[in-house]
Amino acid sequence: MPPELSIVIPVYNEQEVLPLLAARLRPVADGLGTTYEVVAVDDGSDDLSPAVLVRMGREWPQLRVVRLRANAGHQAAISAGLASARGAYVVTLDADLQDPPEVIPEMLAQARAQKADVVYGVRSDRSSDSTFKRLSARAFYRLIRILSGTHAQVDAGDYRLMSRATVNAINSLPEHHRVLRFVVPTLGFPSTSVTYRRDERAAGKSKYPLSKMIRLSLDSVTGFSTAPLRAATWLGLLGGLGALALLAYALIAGALGQTLPGWTSTVVAVAGVGAVQLLCVGILGEYVGRMYAQLQARPTYYIAYDSLTGPATPADEPAPLVAESAPGAGEGVTPADEPAPAASRQA
Ligand code: UDP
Ligand code: MG
């Protein structure tokens, strides 16, 4: 029997936060009065997160651990979780407790009462985020809205509840670098929202460096809009007009006998046109690159291990962890914490 609710949690190097997460999430989930599973997607962590998860799973039968073979990124990890989840409703939640699990019962109640397919968690207050994060996030959501015309709620991140129909729809999308917070609104399924206060990360550091934020923005923009391509056309047009004007000026100046040294105008024209061309080629390249990736149809993640079904190959059995393998951080991890053979862990 599949559970009624699946809680999907992407986990990347979150060893400090996982015990805190369990302590807060478990009472909430147990108190739901319905069947549930927690799908922790270990996104190729290289700290003790896998061992901590396996250990937590021994005392928490509803906890299911899905391990990805390599770090695939936040969005891909959520996608993997959505593909694995079995629930009639699925909640996606970050591991770092920025999004309070206590809101889940309200989301579920809303979904049931309003027959909504999607319940967005909307941040009412981001004062706990850094100023840079807040400002960049606001600019990011604005830009996407303008460019794509999607009605993504400003300040709705990846904390949301989705019905089975929604999850099936997402799973069937062929898109590769999908940014779920914009994909879900474009489906246009009946939705509602609950607001919550975004807290500070309970422990550990952000796993979203600037490079990952830029990548997410690029994926969002190119995934939802061809407006940048049009911008390239306009820029090219403007550059072309500028070049024409320069040409006219040079011809007239030549005809009037004002033979200028001409070095400045040449350099300016060449540099200006060159810059516009490079920009346009770069924008085209972003799209061509994505089309190429789509054609290759390379999966964005590979599952190595699922505690429900066992390892993908015998070699994927989670490695026994000994304290020496991670000096300092291995407190409490002894050979006795070695996971039981997967076969005996099947539900
Ligand atoms: N995460 C992941 N893979 C990554 C980066 C992050 O699964 O490559 C997870 C991370 O463990 C956390 C969530 O995505 O549960 C959000 O990351 P984080 O809290 O670091 O982002 P921020 O809140 O700072 O934007
Ligand atoms: Mg966070």
- Rounded to the nearest angstrom, the radius of gyration is 25 Å
CATH architecture of the largest domain: Alpha-Beta Complex
Helix content: 40-55%
Describe the main β-sheet briefly. 9 strands, mixed
Membrane topology: Multi-pass membrane protein
Protein name: Dolichol-phosphate mannosyltransferase
Keywords: Glycosyltransferase, Membrane, Transferase, Transmembrane, Transmembrane helix
Main location: membrane
Task: Characterise this structure.
Belongs to the glycosyltransferase 2 family. One of its GO terms (cellular component) is plasma membrane. It is found in: Membrane. This protein has two domains: 5-207 and 299-337, Spore Coat Polysaccharide Biosynthesis Protein SpsA, Chain A; 227-296. It has ten helices and nine strands. The protein has helices at 18-30, 49-59, 74-84, 104-114, 131-148, 164-172, 180-187, 210-224, 227-255, 263-296; strands spanning 5-11, 36-42, 63-68, 89-92, 118-125, 156-163, 191-197, 303-306, 310-311. Strands 7-5-6-4-1-2-3-8-9 form a nine-stranded mixed sheet, with helices on both faces. Helix 2 (49-59) links the parallel strand 2 (36-42) and strand 3. The longest helix has 34 residues, at 263-296. The model is unreliable at 323-347 (pLDDT under 50). The structure holds uridine-5'-diphosphate and magnesium ion. Residues 94, 96, 98, 201, 206 line the site of magnesium ion.
